[in-house]
Specification:
The complex is a heterodimer of chains A (150) and B (275).
Chain A: H1 3-30, H2 41-46, E1 52-53, E2 56-57, H3 58-74, H4 79-107, H5 112-134, E3 138-139, E4 142-143
Chain B: H1 3-60, H2 75-88, E1 93-94, E2 97-98, E3 105-111, H3 116-123, H4 126-134, E4 139-145, H5 153-167, H6 172-181, H7 193-202, H8 208-214, H9 218-234, E5 241-246, E6 251-253, H10 263-274
Parallel strand pairs in B: 3-4
Antiparallel strand pairs in B: 1-2, 2-4, 3-5, 5-6
Helix pairs in contact in B: 2-6, 5-6
The chains are: A mainly alpha (150), B alpha+beta (275).
């Protein structure tokens, strides 16, 4: 996969994640029930004590996180920006894993919005790791993507 | 310069270029290897930092069995007893029901005594509902069991029967409230015989020997099964879940927007009162 195609794929995934986070943040502050096919599960998760961390709604944290990931992906490509994307997606993935643990073992309810975000972050962290470790990618047809050496 | 000498010079030049190219390739390979090593170290460092942060969050939010159940006769247990006694003071109880039998609206509360989210409701929105509607004789609440947080079915049955046995002396709600107030970290094995006995000893006015013998009543085991069937029929697979309706009439699912803010419960109760 070319660097450009990889970056576009990651931007698209981060944009979907951002939309989910924006919706959940809106639901949180508007005090409405999230659309959910699994009955009361989403409401249970969204209104549980684990829906906030140090007083900050986790949905808002997700929103900020996705904006930061998008920012790192839209920055000129280089070693630093690739590492920033990796660090941010790793943090998002870790936090998402913690929230999934809370859903399964503390709240006993699964919110499909949170699961979607967890899947997106899992794919993003895999792609970001691959992208970071392969460095400036040279395809068989020559340099691909926008390469800005630092 | 002879032709032979010229060919010799060319070969020497080619060799030099070859050597230079080899050196360059080697340097590039070494640089790539060193860059890759640096990236792996950075990746390891980033993973380490994330793991530490998540571990801190987990510990700070009560993961890993860090929340022990309240010990009987401790100051926290005494405080829980005072709070529960004051909340339920003067409200009639009958078996699993809290409130006057003649109350026009009935709320069925499906819970698991080890469920932390049920605790959130019991300590959050429920006291307002008890004080505003149950005390006024407008609402009665029936406690139903549904196994979710308790991993062991045998433990679930034992703790639920312990609560139902207190209901034989019309003190089940004291037992249930105290259980939620003093709840420990789920799946940490805190629900032992001494824990159940300790709770019973905190229920004001509970005759302990009658309570102990009532725990062997097979009717309570049947009730646990009946509750599970009722929950299944309603399509519940999580706790807390609620059914509401006119007393003696049909019930419907109560959809809440918060477990700590009673407003969505109040709206559902008011709707039933006006119906």
């Amino acid at each position: 996969m070319s660097s450009r195609a990889l970056r576009i794929t990651m931007i698209a995934l981060a944009a979907i994640g951002l939309c989910i986070a924006v919706y959940l943040t809106y639901v949180h502050y508007a005090g409405i029930k999230p659309a959910c096919t699994a009955g009361e599960s989403c409401t249970k998760v969204q209104t549980s004590i684990y829906s906030k961390l140090a007083g900050v709604p986790v949905a808002l944290m997700g929103l900020i996180g996705y904006v930061a990931i998008l920012g790192s992906l839209l920055a000129p490509e280089g070693e630093r920006s690739r590492f920033a994307t990796l660090a941010l997606t790793l943090a998002g993935f870790g936090f998402s894993a913690y929230l999934t643990y809370r859903e399964l073992y503390s709240i006993h309810a699964i919110c499909e919005w949170c699961v979607s975000s967890a899947i997106i972050l899992t794919i993003l962290v895999c792609l970001a790791t691959w992208r970071f470790l392969r460095g400036e990618h040279v395809s068989s047809t020559g340099l691909s993507g926008t390469l800005v050496s630092e | 310069m002879s032709q032979v000498e010229g060919q010799d010079d060319l070969t020497r030049k080619q060799r030099r270029e070859q050597a230079r190219a080899q050196r360059k390739a080697l340097e590039e390979a070494q640089a790539a290897k060193s860059a890759q090593r640096k990236r792996l170290i950075q990746l390891g460092g980033a993973i380490g930092v994330v793991v530490v942060i998540i571990a801190i969050i987990l510990l700070a939010t009560g993961g890993g069995g860090s929340k022990p159940a309240v010990a009987p006769k401790s100051p926290a247990a005494n405080q829980a007893t005072t709070e529960v006694t004051s909340l339920l003071q003067g409200i009639p109880q009958s078996a699993d029901t809290l409130g006057k039998a003649s109350a026009p609206v009935t709320l069925q509360y499906f819970g698991d005594l080890e469920c932390p989210v049920c605790r959130e409701f019991t300590l959050g929105a429920l006291p307002t509902l008890i004080n505003k509607y149950v005390r006024a004789g407008k609402l009665k609440i029936e406690y139903r069991s549904l196994e979710t947080a308790t991993r062991e079915p045998e433990t679930f049955r034992t703790q639920q029967i312990a609560a139902l046995a207190a209901g034989k002396q019309n003190l089940m709600w004291h037992y249930v409230e105290l259980f939620y107030h003093e709840q420990g970290e789920e799946s940490s094995g805190y629900v032992t015989e001494s824990y159940l006995q300790g709770l019973a000893s905190q229920v004001p006015g509970l005759n302990l020997s009658s309570w102990s013998s009532a725990r062997n009543d097979p009717a309570f085991a049947t009730q646990v099964t009946t509750d599970a069937q009722a929950a299944n029929q309603a399509g519940f697979n999580g706790t807390p879940s609620f059914l509401i309706g006119k007393t003696g009439g049909s019930t419907q699912k109560l959809e809440y927007s918060s477990l700590t803010d009673p407003s969505s419960f109040e709206a559902a109760i008011e709707k039933q009162l006006k119906a």
